[in-house]
User: Which sequence fits this backbone?
């Protein structure tokens, strides 16, 4: 989390919105073998339950249950040039959205993992235009084989540490110039975040 309180928020609905928008992140844990990170899709359940799954062979899988872990969602990010400021006698910066979540982890039962997989498929298939794929199209041997190769987990979020570093120190006019500059250079997602709209 960024140390400047200007870039923080207590808005739980906003944080959950970004988690749903990104839907993919990282889980960090110090294991007996050393620090490890896993990359995984996420789903937020109610207020504070973050669910995900990992390959059974992942280094984190055997160490997560009962541990306190850190999960991270990254939103849009990008370089902000001083050319977009009124006074160019300064230095560049990097704007970004990141949400850190910390809490104890439990392994979820097979029926919860099955629900998690169906919900993840449904959520992402809805985001793609055209004819949707259904999990029922996978044969039972295929589904069962892959199901046995993964393990589901739930992180009970006890600490939220969000950073919304979106040029808040700049004047409204400068922010408009930054938004235009970012959008004009292909970073529409960060431009929309700074401009206060969804991308």
Assistant:
């Amino acid at each position: 989390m960024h140390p400047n309180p200007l870039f923080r928020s207590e808005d739980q609905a906003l944080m959950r919105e970004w988690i749903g928008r990104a839907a993919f992140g990282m889980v960090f844990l110090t294991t007996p073998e050393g620090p490890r990170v896993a990359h995984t899709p996420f789903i937020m359940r109610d207020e504070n339950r973050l669910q995900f799954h990992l390959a059974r062979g992942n280094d984190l899988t055997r160490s997560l249950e009962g541990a306190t872990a850190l999960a991270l969602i990254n939103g849009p990010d990008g370089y902000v040039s001083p050319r977009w400021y009124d006074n160019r006698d300064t230095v560049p910066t990097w704007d970004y959205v990141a949400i850190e979540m910390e809490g104890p982890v439990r392994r979820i039962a097979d029926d919860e993992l099955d629900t998690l997989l169906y919900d993840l498929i449904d959520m992402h298939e809805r985001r793609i235009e055209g004819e949707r794929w259904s999990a029922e199209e996978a044969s039972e041997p295929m589904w069962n084989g892959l199901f046995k190769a993964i393990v589901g987990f739930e992180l009970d979020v006890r600490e939220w540490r969000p950073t919304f570093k979106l040029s808040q120190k700049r004047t409204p006019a400068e922010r408009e110039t930054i938004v235009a500059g970012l959008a004009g250079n292909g970073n529409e997602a960060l431009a929309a975040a700074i401009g206060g709209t969804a991308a």
